Amino acid sequence: MSPKAKTKASEKKAKTDKKAVERIEHAGLLDVRELTTHFKLGAGDVKAVTKVSFVVEPGESLGLAGESGCGKTTAALSILKLLPENGRIVSGDVLFDGRNLAKRTEYGMSKIRWKEISIIFQGAMNALNPVQETGKQIAEPIQLHEGLSEKQAMVRVRELYDLVGVSQKRVMDVPHQLSGGMRQRAMIAMALACNPKLVIGDEPTTALDVMVQAQILDLIARLRKELHLSFILISHDLSVMAETCDKGVIMYAGEVVESGTTTNIFNNATHPYTRLLIKAFPNIHEKREMVSSIKGDPPNLINPPAGCGFCPRCDVRIASCATEHPELIEVEPGHFVRCVLARQGV
Ligand SMILES: Nc1ncnc2c1ncn2[C@@H]1O[C@H](COP(=O)(O)OP(=O)(O)OP(=O)(O)O)[C@@H](O)[C@H]1O
Ligand SMILES: [Mg+2]
Predict the structure, then answer these.
(1) Which atom number of ligand 1 is nearest to the Cα of residue 236?
(2) Where do the domains of the chain lie?
(3) pLDDT at position 345, please?
(4) Fewer CB within 10 A of the terminal residue: the chain, N end or C end?
(5) Confidence class of residue 284 from pLDDT cuts 50, 70 and 90?
């Protein structure tokens, strides 16, 4: 082999090795590492998501919780690279089944969305076209992504209606003929249409009454088991996470402030913010309103504070909290907390 050919061969091998290493090195099905996403505004960059990391194993469900504006939806849209025009992933990796989605082209992402990762968008059930049959609206992405005719896609829609517990007779109903619960089931059907490995549900039960919320959460739990799905359930309501998730990530002002198994989070909540959130939502069967809301507001994300973002609202803060930005520390195996008091073992 000529020296030139040898160099080419070794370069090719190095590239292959790099790919192979990437395939081996990442954890779980989805491994989000230090994801940072900003939105550009006239007044400056909104630091919506800062160095967020978590892992979702095959078949596992992870809850992403926190108050409004803490970056839950932005994290989800970053995973799928569906950010609005003024949004961009600044740094970090989104490793999914051996590929780094953060570095993928739009064409590359089009092969992943719906077929491997799907999303139930926040408020999607109210965004359905009011004058088009719901079944046909679900058939459209199936036609697009699976290359099926409308007739073939409608056969799949009927199967999906069966799967999510809506009578097949309802496929020709327009949205207002369906109850809120049925519409949300239809949205779940749409998310499952191309047999994804991971589904992201962005507040999938928030607009529903308590009884229907419980039914939808039961449905998600059943589907997860039957289809061996991984699920990211986004909610501002911790009781939803407690009922349905294996693991939890609590976000505040764009950062992870606590993460661990749901047992870690509910039996040993350590961050003052997590404790207050738990108090705010006592349990799933009670009325879904913040029972005791947390005083004050999250910080401005254009100019986030130098110290702990939760400091002004925290009832156990110490002097250094205003100036020292806490790192995430592991307080027990797999349980991470971003609070100086956790470091002091309080
Ligand atoms: N297109 C955008 N341009 C500028 N800022 C944005 C944009 N979208 C979101 N943001 C800001 O990014 C931050 C995170 O918003 P995000 O929607 O991710 O929060 P969230 O946790 O999903 O809230 P909610 O519970 O209300 O859905 C907020 O400060 C929000 O105002
Ligand atoms: Mg949101």
Answers:
(1) 25
(2) 26-116+196-343
(3) 56
(4) N
(5) low
